[in-house]
């Protein structure tokens, strides 16, 4: 068993696609209309195009806003992405105007930072322990 797809709720799929591709560096994998204004819209890592897909899922369900608001109020990221060098990625993203709610923080063998994805979520970036 392995994870093939996970989703992140987004307020605006077009804005999310722009942020996740142009800023974070993911690449679009699927973009399929599913009726109305919504799309089956996924992105993947450019280094793992056949890897786990991230679905940019519309945040229309009534449970989404209270859930995301509660996480954000407590500073809890909804997702974590692995990066080789948190400090370098932090500087790169800050240079692109990304807002961070937590600067790089060392916690034993892992360094983390938390950013606002502009789509309603806090995202943690982290190095993986070696």
Describe this structure in words.
This protein is α/β, with parallel strands linked by helices and 130 residues long. The chain has 3 helices and 8 strands, in the order E-H-E-E-E-H-E-H-E-E-E. The protein has helices at residues 13-23, 64-73, 86-95, and strands spanning 5-10, 27-33, 39-44, 53-58, 79-82, 100-107, 110-116, 122-126. The strands form 2 sheets. A 4-stranded mixed beta sheet has the order 1-4-3-2, with helices on one face. A 4-stranded mixed beta sheet has the order 5-8-7-6. A hairpin with a 5-residue loop joins strand 7 and strand 8 (122-126). The protein starts with a strand and ends with a strand.
Blueprint of the fold:
Elements: E1 5-10, H1 13-23, E2 27-33, E3 39-44, E4 53-58, H2 64-73, E5 79-82, H3 86-95, E6 100-107, E7 110-116, E8 122-126
Order of helices and strands: EHEEEHEHEEE
- Tell me the Rg in angstroms: 15 Å
Q: Characterize the biggest β-sheet.
A: 4 strands, mixed
Order the strands across the largest sheet as they lie in space: 1-4-3-2
The shape, in one word, is: globular
Helical residue percent?
Answer: 10-25%
Number of strands: 8
N-C termini distance: 24 Å
How much of the sequence lies in strands comes to 35-45%
Give the number of helices.
3
What would you call the structural class? alpha/beta
Average residue-wise pLDDT: 96
Uncertain runs with pLDDT below 50, 5 residues or more? none
């Amino acid at each position: 068993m392995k994870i093939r797809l996970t989703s992140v709720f987004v307020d605006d799929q077009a804005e999310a696609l722009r942020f996740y591709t142009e800023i974070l560096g993911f690449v679009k994998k699927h973009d399929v209309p599913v009726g109305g204004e919504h799309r089956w819209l996924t992105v993947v890592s450019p280094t793992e195009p056949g890897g786990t897909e991230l679905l940019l899922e519309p945040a229309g369900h009534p449970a989404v806003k209270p859930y995301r608001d509660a996480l954000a109020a407590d500073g809890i990221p909804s997702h974590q992405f692995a990066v080789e060098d948190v400090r370098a990625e932090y500087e790169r993203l800050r240079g692109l105007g990304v807002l961070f709610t937590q600067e790089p923080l060392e916690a034993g063998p892992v360094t983390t930072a938390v950013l606002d994805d502009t789509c309603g979520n806090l995202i943690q970036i982290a190095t993986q322990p070696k």
